Amino acid sequence: MTRAEFGTVLSRLLYGNLYNTTDMSKPYYQEHLDSLHVSGIMTDISKPSKREIRGYLMLMLMRAKDSNTSK
């Protein structure tokens, strides 16, 4: 799973459709990754097509659980 895919799924779990965009000038995942980066859940969003390893996915899930950012 790529960083963009996981970030989009996690963002939708936390925020619902808040960061879905119809702006075709940006990638579908950009708003999702930006929101996770601002909240401290994702620290590196520079390579969205990078494949993530399980450990980093678990770390992001733990950060999301510990944050107060949910819909």
Can you characterise this structure?
- The chain has 71 residues and is an all-alpha fold.
- It has one domain.
- It is globular, with a radius of gyration of 11 Å.
- The model has no long low-confidence stretch (mean pLDDT 93).
Task: Quickly describe the structure.
The chain has 71 residues and is mainly alpha-helical.
Q: Which key phrases capture this entry?
A:
mainly alpha; 3 helices
List the helices and strands and how they pair.
Elements (H helix, E strand, L loop, with lengths): L2 H13 L14 H9 L15 H13 L5
Helix pairs in contact: 1-2
Radius of gyration: 11 Å
How many domain modules? 1
Order of helices and strands: HHH
Determine the mean pLDDT: 93
**Count of helical segments?**
3
What is the number of beta strands? Answer: 0
Low-confidence stretches: none
Strand percentage, roughly? under 5%
- Biggest sheet features: none
From the spread of the alpha carbons, the general shape counts as: globular
Structural class given helices, strands, pairing?
A: mainly alpha
Binned, the helix content reads 40-55%
Task: Give the termini separation.
Answer: 24 Å
